[in-house]
């Protein structure tokens, strides 16, 4: 859909459209501890190489309380974590969501380099 819209619109209006669509589909995710980037997802991908991902199954588990989002872990203990605010939580598992940076452009460049030898 983004590629289709980008044929006729600039990047920033397409980003705004996706922010609205995401809000309509997912609701206000900030109340669950998920912080939205300050710039749109297409601009984020374009300028910093980051690909924001919202996995619907994880979002629903967060909404139902099966997954708790916390801002920072100070230390791990047996079956517990201490948060940076001093709170100690009993945990079954911890998912460290530190971000994702795509390296697609790097391997695409490598593929085009190797394909120049086959012609």
Automatic annotation (TrEMBL):
SUPFAM superfamilies: FAD/NAD(P)-binding domain (SSF51905). GO terms for molecular function: flavin adenine dinucleotide binding; indole-3-pyruvate monooxygenase activity. Keywords: Monooxygenase, Oxidoreductase. It is an enzyme of class 1 (oxidoreductase). It comes from the Eukaryota. The keyword Oxidoreductase applies. Its EC number is 1.14.13.168. It catalyses: indole-3-pyruvate + NADPH + O2 + H(+) = (indol-3-yl)acetate + CO2 + NADP(+) + H2O. Belongs to the FMO family. This is indole-3-pyruvate monooxygenase.
């Amino acid at each position: 859909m983004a590629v289709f819209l980008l044929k006729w619109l600039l990047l920033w209006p397409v980003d705004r459209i996706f922010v609205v669509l995401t809000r309509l589909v997912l609701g206000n995710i900030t109340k669950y501890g998920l912080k939205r980037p300050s710039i749109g997802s297409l601009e984020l991908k374009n300028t910093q190489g980051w690909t924001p991902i919202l996995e619907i199954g994880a979002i629903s588990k967060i909404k139902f309380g099966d997954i708790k989002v916390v801002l920072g872990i100070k230390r791990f203990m047996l079956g517990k974590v201490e948060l940076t605010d001093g709170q100690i939580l009993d945990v079954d598992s911890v998912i460290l969501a530190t971000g994702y940076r795509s390296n697609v452009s790097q391997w695409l460049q490598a593929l085009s380099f190797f394909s120049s030898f086959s012609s």
